[in-house]
Amino acid sequence: MCDLKTVLISAKQPDSYELLKPFWEESLKYLTDQPLFFLEEKAIKENRALCGLPEELDISLLKTAARVRADAHLRVLIWHLYCLVFRHQEYTAESIRKWPDFSGIFGSDNWHFYQLINLASVPEIRRIHQLYNIPEAVTAETLSDTLVKARFNREICGVAGSNPRNLSWRRNFIISPPLCQVGRFQYILKNFPDKIRVFKNKTTQAVIAFAEHGIQYTEEGYIFPEGLSRQENSWQSELVINDKITGHPISPYGRAMKKKIRLESAEWECVLNSSSPVLDIHIPVGGGMTMESVHRSMSDALIFFDRYFPGRKVRGFRLVTWFLNTLLEQYYRPDSNLVMFQKQVYLFPVPTGYNSGLYFIFGSENIDLKTAPRDTSIRRAMLKILEDGRPLRSEGMFFLREHIEHFGAAYYREQWEQKVKMLI
Predict the structure, then answer these.
(1) Residue 135: is it exposed, middle or buried by C-beta count within 10 angstroms (0-12/13-18/19+)?
(2) Looking at the chain, which terminus has fewer C-beta neighbours within 10 angstroms, N or C?
(3) Residues 158, 219 within the same domain
(4) Are 159 and 40 within one domain?
(5) Is the dihedral of CA 269, 325, 330, 221 positive or negative?
């Protein structure tokens, strides 16, 4: 049996043994003497083309594949990495994101090495889409994520390849139901995972979110970061539902309120909880996120998922991202797409670090405030937030399907001011 330690020494990454040893023996069980399908020239060219990558990349991809085929250690390594991503779902995405840089042996082709693993998923993605009778146009749009990420990789690494972070995300393309891109956004159909519960008034249609029971919040109403000492004025939420709904409301501006309120249960219906199917939004890197394109994507997504996944009635949308940070309303352009989007949705606090978004804007999660580039307005805004000693936190949002016609009218903020504030 091939030894992983020997393989990693050959690949100049001996320190990655603990990270990569899970499922090693299982991977080897399925490795035969037959050529690896995703290292064959025909498969590489076909998968590259289906993802919209330029033909000029064939030279580097084929050169990297030939080198792997010719080296027994590299061949078993790439097979094991492929299995960890696409066959061993118990292996965490967090672990994948920690995978090493193999530039010690590949040089800049390190990114093409990872791209070969990424492209290996294309036949399975297409098979799953065909199983659900998803139109080819949607499959092509979904696969275009490969090109978007390759371009981003070129911006931060100089090579239009892939990386472990991309591979951890690629898993979502082969789950059931799979990630699908519809217009500007990508969507994953899943149950609502966040620690809030949403109610709608049966008469006025007013919407209010409550914090779930037992969540620790800061004095300002954000979820308290794990691992930090509790602040003197932090507090824990309570939620009791019987003939009354008693708990801590969350405003659509993104903060939980320490003051508890009590509502009559008979007058309100729960419209969003942990068993509610939602479309989890993910936003490919790139511009063009106008309110028109967002509204069109969300509207089309409801039609698409109702048609191709009719067994689960979508209740609405959910998104967690760095650009829902409410501080951007203070620091960034009020006419920006990011700020305007915040105003259309119901924001709520989520567990978060304090440097969210740095990777997507600066290409690294570690930056020097003195030397970081300030060539764009969003970079300047984020750096100013940090310089003022304030956090770059992620926040969450939901948007109910019955309100899609109100997108663009700041519906949740308007109804909060007119119908909900009086209840608090």
Answers:
(1) exposed
(2) N
(3) no
(4) yes
(5) positive
Peptide bond into 177 cis (omega under 30): yes
129-168 pLDDT tens trace: 999 999 999 999 999 999 999 999 999 888 999 999 999 9
Give yes or no: residues 281 and 355 share one domain.
yes
Residue 216 lies in a domain: yes
Instruction: Determine the Cα–Cα distance for residues 370 and 296; give it in Å rounded to an integer.
Output: 41
- Measured between alpha carbons, how far is 369 from 371 in angstroms, rounded to an integer? 6
**52, part of any domain:** yes
Q: Are residues 79 and 115 in the same domain?
A: yes
CATH code assigned at 390: 3.40.630.120
- CA gap 129, 177 in Å, rounded: 9
Could you tell me if 407 and 401 are in contact, meaning their C-beta atoms sit under 8 angstroms apart?
no
CA neighbor of 2 nearest in space, from 27, 34, 37, 38: 27
Q: Is 321 helix (H, G, I), strand (E, B) or coil?
A: strand
- Choose the final residue of a domain: 162, 177, 192: 177
Residues 238 and 285 in one domain: no
Strands 268-272 and 196-201: antiparallel
Beta strands at 239-241 and 346-349: parallel, antiparallel or unpaired: unpaired
Domain range spanning residue 220? 210-265
| pLDDT tens, residue by residue, 298-347 | 999 999 999 999 999 999 999 999 999 999 999 999 999 999 999 999 99
Task: Looking at the structure, tell me whether residues 112 and 230 fall in a common domain.
Answer: no
The answer to whether the predicted template modeling score (pTM) of the entire model surpasses 0.90 is yes
Sheet containing strand 185-191, strands side by side: 180-182, 185-191, 277-282, 316-321, 395-400, 346-349
Query: What is the identity of the amino acid at 289?
Result: M
3-state secondary structure of 136: helix
Per-residue pLDDT, 226: 64
Q: CA-to-CA distance for 223 and 236, rounded, in angstroms?
A: 10
Instruction: Among 177, 194, 220, give the residue marking a domain's end.
Output: 177
Q: How many helices (H) and strands (E) does the chain have?
A: 19, 15
Closest CA to 390 of 308, 326, 307, 324: 326
150/241 same-domain check: no
Distance CA 42, CA 58 (A): 11
Report the number of distinct structural domains present in the chain: 3
